[in-house]
Amino acid sequence: MEHTWSPEQYLRFGEERGRPFADLTARIRAVDPAHVVDLGAGPGTLTALLAARWPEAQVLAVDSSPEMVARAGQVEGITAVRGDLRRWEPSAPVDVLVTNAALQWVPGHLQLLPRLVAMLAPGGWFAMQVPGNFDEPSHAIRRELAARAPYAEHLRGVDHPDAHDAGTYLGALQDLGLEVEAWETTYLHVLTGPDPVFAWVSGTGARPTLQALPETLRPGFERTFRARLRAAYPETEHGVVLPFRRVFAVGRRPC
């Protein structure tokens, strides 16, 4: 079963999801770029920040989800197109290429980096961010439950995110000839509302798993998943704290 994405569910935590994008793109020091591309742009709300920063540039939002592209098409200042980042090709060399929280969905994405870097114009910038929290309870609990009967037979081969550490991306991009800086940041998101960690993961990392389950099994899986997440991320008087590690790399192609 091919999963779908919900812009509304994703944007429920839009402010928290937007912080890494702002921190990533702040390290891009491009001046007056003509062609700016956001690969895996989702609903386009963050791509709009690129258009605001470089109003004279042609800013393109690329995403494989028709639901996300439809939402991005309503965002002023950008052009939204549907495309798979594994195969999409630009019509001209790219001055700024951003991929934010997308590469983790591509198995073996280190092998994709040479193709992405080759899209850059001389002096062009490449910026990437991926989650680095896959050992945290929010993912570990999902994997544990998914491996159990009766769920396992329905979840074999379901998409799941994965990524590397900052040092791995640093070396890979340096080997491709870029001048690179790479770093990691752990954000402490304070979430509110009923079962907020479940609400968070059901819009991203856990969504393919939940959608792949038949209707007869999904409610039981969700009940157990919610309960385990509540125990792993207890509520405090200020809300529920979700630690979230992110991995960043920004590189410039020499002129």
Shape: globular
What Rg, in angstroms, do the CA atoms define? 19 Å
Oligomer: single chain
Q: CATH first level: which class?
A: Alpha Beta
Helix amount, in percent?
Answer: 25-40%
Please state the structural category: alpha/beta
Number of strands: 8
Determine the N-to-C terminus distance: 45 Å
CATH architecture designation: 3-Layer(aba) Sandwich
Task: Explain how this protein is built.
- By secondary structure, the protein is α/β, with parallel strands linked by helices.
- It has a single domain, classed as Vaccinia Virus protein VP39 (Rossmann fold, 3-Layer(aba) Sandwich).
- Helix content is 35%, strand content 25%.
- It is built from eleven helices and eight strands.
- Strands 1, 2, 3, 4, 5, 6, 7 and 8 form an eight-stranded mixed β-sheet that branches.
- Helix 6 packs antiparallel against helix 11 (218-232).
- It is globular, with a radius of gyration of 19 Å.
- The model has no long low-confidence stretch (mean pLDDT 92).
Keywords:
alpha/beta; globular; 25% strand; 11 helices; eight-stranded mixed β-sheet; 255 residues; 35% helix; Rossmann fold
